[in-house]
Specification:
By secondary structure, the chain is α+β, with helices and mostly antiparallel strands. The chain is built from 14 helices and 15 strands. The longest helix has 72 residues.
Length: 484
């Protein structure tokens, strides 16, 4: 039995203020506990054995995200904690640290549930606090999840944008030097008596060379390319062209080998070939640089377009959207996470546009695909494969299946994966809300279903969606009634 002075302190706690004299049975199985400053009352990821009420002292509740420590709440005398993991059957979602010496009253699991049954006022306050704290922690973690997704998106896009931007910068930096060389060679041709009157022919020759360079063709293997360059160097050396070894790679890379030279050399005076070919090679180099810069900046534009499509930032939240386009955009955004993963697409071409919240659905595809990739790559799997299937089930529903060949989810955990705060990731790495958010988007926002089947070597998430979200269907029915 607790000492009288401790019982008196408890009666002044908000949790027990409405208890009558006869209701001291609520504390019959409680025990006192003392914690020195700096000790932990609860550790994240460990089982919670007791519900605690603070008689005196202060504690801080915080959660670690990697190396970052985020304070969730502070408690002082009269506060209580521990009801969430006990009632939900979870390990501790956060740490609780004593900021001062702490005097607490503790109820083990059996005593806690007995207290809930025998002390109605206290049970009511605990359950209200439970609901409020779950909403608060869930809302906080949901925002953290969104920020983490945004950080992942930003990091991924920075990585993806780096290559085309670097390519564009390289092209632009070399363009000035190549243009200068082209101008100097143009001046030399103008002053060369052998090329007098050739400019109309040179312009036609340059147009033909650029057209040939831009025409689609297969890539030569290294040996065939080397042989072609050697043959072209011999051809140019025989005609007195200086530094043929510098010119041959550009010509061969543009698809202009010995055959093209033989076919077009007759259009020029024989003694002018040695000064015209360097000029022509410089022009082709300028064109190649411009095409490289255009391709790089086009890649940047495509990536920006993907971000815009992914977030649907310029559209109303509920809209018609191409399901396959959303999945493809998500895969493009996640390209950095999917390196080392074979992505297989099996899309049903019969699926029409769906009406719903495509920006939110992209969050679903992101979570499921990223989780699958992490599960496979974390164990060094070399044959990692992600398969995404879509199927028109009937006139009103579509099913998206995201399957991986990773280790699978143990049977004893499968029933808990959609529970708030439940995660199989190490402490500090997961919020336990990614799949909760997916479930709400699919079920609550779209009136659909999300199911899991898993065994070693095969894990499938089946997302079944109506073609028209319930909110949109109700809106359409309301408009139809109004018009009638």
């Amino acid at each position: 039995m607790l000492p009288p002075e401790t019982l008196e302190s408890l009666r002044h706690c908000e949790l027990f203020t409405n208890l009558g004299e006869a209701e001291t049975i609520c504390f019959a199985d409680a025990v006192e506990a003392h914690y020195p400053k700096g000790s932990f009352l609860i550790r994240e990821g460990q089982p919670v054995q007791s519900f605690r009420v603070l008689v005196s002292g202060d504690i801080r509740v915080f959660k670690r995200y990697g190396d970052q420590e985020v304070v969730l709440a502070s408690q002082s005398a009269g506060g209580f904690f521990g009801e969430i993991p006990i009632l939900l059957g979870l390990d501790a979602p956060a740490d609780a640290l004593a900021l001062t010496d702490v005097h607490a009253v503790e109820f083990d699991r059996a005593a806690f549930f007995k207290m809930l049954r025998t002390c109605e006022p206290a049970a009511t306050r605990i359950l209200r606090a439970l609901a409020s704290r779950i909403r608060g922690v869930e809302g906080f973690n949901a925002q953290r999840e969104k920020l983490a997704s945004l950080g992942t998106l930003a990091a991924g896009m920075a990585h993806e944008l780096n290559n085309p931007i670097a390519a564009a910068r390289r092209a632009i930096s070399s363009l000035g030097e190549t243009m200068q060389r082209w101008r100097e060679l143009s001046l030399e041709i103008s002053l060369d008596s052998a090329a007098v009157g050739c400019w109309p022919t040179l312009q036609e020759l340059e147009r033909d060379a650029v057209a040939a360079a831009r025409a689609p063709r297969g890539e030569l293997d290294p040996i065939a390319r080397s042989d072609a360059e050697d043959a072209l160097m011999d051809w140019m050396d025989a005609r007195g062209v200086e530094e043929s070894w510098k010119l041959a790679p550009t010509f061969v890379g543009s698809g202009l080998g010995v055959e093209w030279m033989e076919a077009n050399a007759s259009r020029l005076p024989a003694d002018a070939v040695c000064c015209i070919l360097p000029w022509l090679e410089a022009g082709l180099a300028v064109d190649a640089i411009l095409r490289e810069a255009d391709e790089a900046t086009g890649r940047v534009a495509d990536l920006v377009k993907s971000i815009k499509s992914y977030s649907h930032m310029d559209r109303q939240p509920r809209q018609r959207a191409d399901l396959h386009e959303g999945i493809e955009t998500t895969l493009k955004i996640l390209a950095h996470k999917l390196r080392g993963v074979e992505v297989v697409r099996a899309f049903d071409p019969r699926i029409p546009q769906i009406v719903g919240y495509p920006g939110e659905l992209n969050q679903v595809w992101t979570n499921l695909a990223a989780n699958a990739a992490e599960a496979m790559l974390a164990r060094g799997q070399t044959d990692a494969r992600l398969t995404i299937r879509t199927e028109l089930e009937d006139e009103g529903h579509v099913c998206v299946t995201i399957e991986d060949n990773g280790p699978g989810i143990p049977p004893e955990l499968q029933s808990r994966i959609f529970d708030p705060f439940f995660t199989t990731k190490p402490v500090g790495e997961g919020t336990g809300l990614g799949l909760v958010i997916c479930h709400r988007i699919v079920a609550d926002r779209h009136g659909g279903e999300i199911e899991l089947t898993s065994e070693p070597g095969r894990t499938c998430f089946h997302v079944r969606l109506p073609l028209i979200a319930p909110a949109e269907r109700r809106a359409q029915e309301g408009e139809a009634r109004a018009m009638a």
